[in-house]
Design brief:
Blueprint (H helix, E strand, L loop, with lengths): L10 H8 L6 E4 L6 H9 L5 E6 L2 H10 L7 E5 L5 H7 L5 E7 L4 H4 L26 H7 L2 H12 L4 H12 L7 H8 L13 H12 L1 H14 L1 E11 L2 H13 L3 E3 L20 E7 L4
Parallel strand pairs: 1-2, 1-4, 2-3, 4-5
Antiparallel strand pairs: 5-7, 6-7
Helix pairs in contact: 1-2, 7-8, 7-10, 11-12
Length: 292
């Protein structure tokens, strides 16, 4: 396997919140290329079981290679982190001492030329984090109604041109199916606002990806389940990459009576952060307390 260099997002900050926690059992819901996992294992000799979960099999292959020195402790699982109850149940584990969720798109997925996450490459409009699921982004743009497309772009992309974009997709797909990233760009670019800081199609591609993978639904379910699975004095950390995710994390932490919020405001990356993904990253941590 080709060696890929990864820089985990907000790594030092994550490690600082786990520093004084006795991490016998750890659940990494989005292990990815295992950058965070290796650093946590390096610093916590007391870890007996480290569960590295990811819905992306390609990520798990890289994680397996990265974590070879710790394979006596590591259990890699192909699933969605929202299935934490089933995952821990299958292992006869009731509670964990630490949880980390690094949400959104990984650098590995974004850099893939074949998976349709990025409009930098001409590839099939796929966008599935779990390639075994059926729904792809091309299914959405070619089959969903104008009203459904508008709702997806408006709610998940928060783009002002959502209505115009949805209408144009429906018009153009009658002439030719929209099957690739470049097909979609060709449809969208004439109707998008080009006078903005980011690429005009960024938010619409983000919205499609969120819809394909039900990212917000999985976050709500997974976050609640993970909190319930924390031991007293256990710690949970979440790295989010857009306001919709961060809002869910913020309110879930704040409204849960069994949590003590450790980050009054989200932690953002310093200028020295080596991972370009970190520019939009927000980190929140909370501790499980005994209020039952």
């Amino acid at each position: 396997m080709q060696k890929i260099k990864h820089f985990p997002v907000l790594l030092k900050e994550c490690l600082s919140f786990f520093k004084d926690v006795n991490l016998n059992t750890f659940f990494d819901g989005t292990v990815g290329a295992a950058g965070h996992a290796k650093a946590i294992l390096d610093e916590h000799d007391e870890i007996e079981i480290y569960i590295g979960n990811d819905r992306d099999k390609d990520a798990l292959e890289i994680a397996n290679d990265t974590l070879k020195p710790y394979m006596n402790k590591v259990r890699l699982v192909h699933s969605n982190y929202s299935n934490i109850d089933e995952i821990l149940g299958d292992m006869n584990i009731k509670k964990v001492d630490g949880v980390l969720l690094d949400l959104g798109l990984s650098s590995m997925q974004l850099d893939s030329e074949s998976r349709g996450f990025s409009f930098r490459y001409d590839s099939v409009l796929d966008m599935r984090m779990n390639k075994s699921q059926d729904l792809m982004a091309k299914d959405i743009v070619n089959k969903y109604s104008e009203k459904e497309l508008y709702k997806i772009f408006k709610e998940y992309g928060e783009d002002r041109r959502s209505k115009v974009a949805a209408k144009e997709i429906v018009i153009q797909r009658k002439k030719k199916k929209i099957n690739t990233t470049f097909d979609l760009l060709e449809v969208l670019m004439p109707v998008l606002n080009k006078n903005q800081r980011i690429h005009p199609a960024t938010r619409l591609f983000q919205a499609l990806r969120i819809c394909v993978n039900d990212e917000l639904g999985e976050l709500k379910k997974g976050l609640s389940s993970a909190i319930n699975r924390l031991n007293i004095d256990g710690v949970i950390g979440v790295i989010s990459f857009h306001s919709l995710e961060d809002r869910i994390v913020k309110h879930t932490f704040k409204d849960n009576k069994n949590l003590k919020v450790l980050t009054k405001k989200p932690i953002i990356a310093s200028r020295g952060e080596r991972n370009p993904r970190a520019r939009s990253a927000k980190l929140r941590f909370a501790k499980r307390v005994d209020n039952e």
